[in-house]
Specification:
Length: 344
């Protein structure tokens, strides 16, 4: 059908409406960018916190496992500690005295100070009270060693040295060429002198950690690479070699002899149980016996502080404690004079 002329004219004369396109203002754009930055920061902080927390937990488990392994090693060495008991020759002295009396035709007389039993290997002219006993003092095990008259234990609050009996392993009989003339080579033996102490970090001329040189260029050595790493040190040498080195001035070589067990350990403490109280020092030559038990404390840096490197007021030190009973230890028998002086 044909369109009426009136409608065609009205439609052509009506103006066209143009719609404006929508967009963001500058303020909205700035707010959006600010919120995005804040959101990214929160997500990054959460991820960083999660990573640090996981590393702290991982280091916590590693420190616990390390402490358990070190404690087990120290316990094995302490339980193998030996101490020789003096030979009781009273029966042999009485037998020799009776034999001498029967040969001379007289009655049996007790052995006196005038009896000469040196032919039997017995020196009865000097009593045990009047004998000159050389006092053994604990030297600094980091720079030397203390020599006991008889195998035993000597130690203080931070260092310990024990003589233990243990059969050598098969690989110890294999001969190795010593690549360094600064330390002392160990030899296969069933009688070892073992020392434990903590070496401070940065000591020049101490025990080197072979793992600390991994990845360090050997072309240009630095002063830092020449310094020793701190940590728990275990030194195990044949007792005869240790005594010879200590008596011939080989303390400087002993200073560089040993094995760095754990750089993570910052300190170690020992306590010695005599049956009544804990002692801070012990010498089997002085007491005549081994301690009934030895208390070992290991100290490590807190995992949070070790990872972040930030020392705050709330930073703590982790402590691991273990008490080891010595099978060959015996209670110390106090003499009557000591009991009278104590008022017992």
């Amino acid at each position: 059908a044909a369109v009426p002329p009136a409608l065609t004219k009205s439609a052509a004369s009506k103006p066209t409406k143009i719609t404006a396109r929508g967009g963001f203002t500058l303020l909205e754009l700035l707010l959006t960018l600010s919120l995005a930055v804040v959101l990214i920061g929160l997500v990054g902080g959460a991820m960083r916190f999660y990573a640090i927390d996981m590393n702290v937990r991982d280091m916590d488990i590693r420190q616990t496992q390390l402490a358990a392994a070190v404690m087990q090693m120290i316990e094995n060495d302490l339980r193998a500690t030996l101490h020789g008991e003096p030979i009781d020759t009273s029966g042999l002295e009485a037998l020799l005295a009776a034999t001498a009396a029967n040969v001379s035709g007289g009655g049996a007389q007790p052995v006196g100070a005038d009896e000469d039993l040196s032919a039997a290997g017995i020196d009865s002219g000097i009593s045990s009270d009047d004998a000159m006993i050389e006092e053994t003092s604990l030297a600094d095990l980091e720079s030397g060693t203390a020599v006991l008259q008889s195998p035993g234990l000597i130690g203080n609050q931070t260092q310990i040295q024990i003589d233990l009996s243990r059969l050598p392993r098969l690989e110890e009989y294999m001969a190795f060429l010593d690549q360094s003339v600064a330390n002392i080579d160990d030899v296969p033996s069933d009688l070892k002198t073992v020392s434990y102490f903590v070496q401070p970090a940065g000591v020049v001329g101490g025990i080197q950690d072979p793992l600390s040189q991994v990845g360090v260029s050997t072309v240009e050595p630095t002063a830092l690479s020449e310094a020793s790493t701190g940590g728990l040190v275990r030194r195990s040498l044949d007792r005869a070699a240790t005594v010879y080195a200590a008596s011939t001035g080989g303390a400087a070589m002993l200073n560089q002899t040993g094995e760095l067990l754990a750089p993570e350990i910052t300190a170690i403490e020992f306590g010695y149980w005599d049956g009544v109280t804990w002692q801070l020092e012990w010498s089997s030559d002085e007491y005549g016996e081994l301690p009934l038990a030895v208390q070992v404390r290991l100290y490590m840096a807190d995992p949070q502080t070790a990872i972040t490197g930030e020392i705050t007021e709330t930073s703590t030190t982790r402590t691991f404690m273990h008490v080891v009973r010595l099978p060959m230890a015996r209670p110390i028998e106090e003499e009557e004079t000591d009991l009278l002086e104590a008022g017992i």
